[in-house]
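Run log // design_07
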């Protein structure tokens, strides 16, 4: 598996690696258990709210890993109960006689990370909504810009907007062919004049 620190550093530079997704939740849970990383293992309650094949998982893990998942199932059951999250863990616990013990500190640790993960997921969802709204807004702006500007002019303005370096030739072209149009578009008197024309046209 690629170094996590390396992957994170690449992503900060906008370079993303493509990894295959999991075909089944059981496979994901098994990999979490086999990571032997306590923080990663504490993510297990995030994946227990929907049905999963407990027997398929325990048939692919060792006795130590089984203790970890049993403990996580009992902790998740308590977290879900406190938050009124629907689940079928009670059936799994009864059918398999799961009785693994855990301390108050362990429960608090799992619970805190569970709440933190839900909050992060909610924030990410809000970011996606904002991003979609921004894309829709940009689509409208791009449509209007295409009426006023040629593709070459739009390309230069986009580079300036994104703080990208432009050549001296592009800079000269900007002042010669783009700047005057921008200034005219920003003129409040012109904007009011055009609004009156648009309103008058609709009345007639």
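design_07 sequence
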């Amino acid at each position: 598996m690629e170094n996590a620190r390396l992957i994170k550093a690449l992503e900060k530079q906008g370079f993303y690696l493509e990894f295959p997704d999991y075909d089944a939740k059981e496979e994901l849970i098994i990999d979490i258990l086999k990571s032997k990383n306590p923080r990663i293992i504490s993510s297990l309650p995030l994946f227990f709210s929907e049905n999963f094949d407990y027997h398929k998982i325990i048939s692919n893990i060792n006795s130590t890993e089984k203790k970890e998942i049993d403990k996580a199932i009992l902790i998740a059951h308590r977290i879900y109960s406190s938050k009124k999250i629907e689940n079928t863990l009670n059936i799994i616990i009864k059918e398999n006689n799961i009785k693994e013990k855990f301390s108050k500190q362990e429960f608090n640790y799992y619970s805190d990370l569970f709440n933190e993960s839900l909050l992060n997921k909610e924030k990410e969802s809000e970011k996606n909504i904002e991003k979609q709204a921004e894309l829709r807004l940009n689509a409208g702006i791009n449509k209007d810009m295409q009426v006023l500007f040629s593709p070459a002019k739009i390309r230069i303005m986009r580079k300036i907007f994104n703080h990208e370096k432009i050549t001296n030739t592009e800079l000269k072209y900007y002042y010669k062919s783009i700047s005057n149009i921008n200034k005219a578009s920003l003129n409040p008197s012109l904007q009011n004049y055009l609004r009156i024309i648009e309103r008058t046209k609709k009345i007639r």
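The chain has ten helices and no strands.
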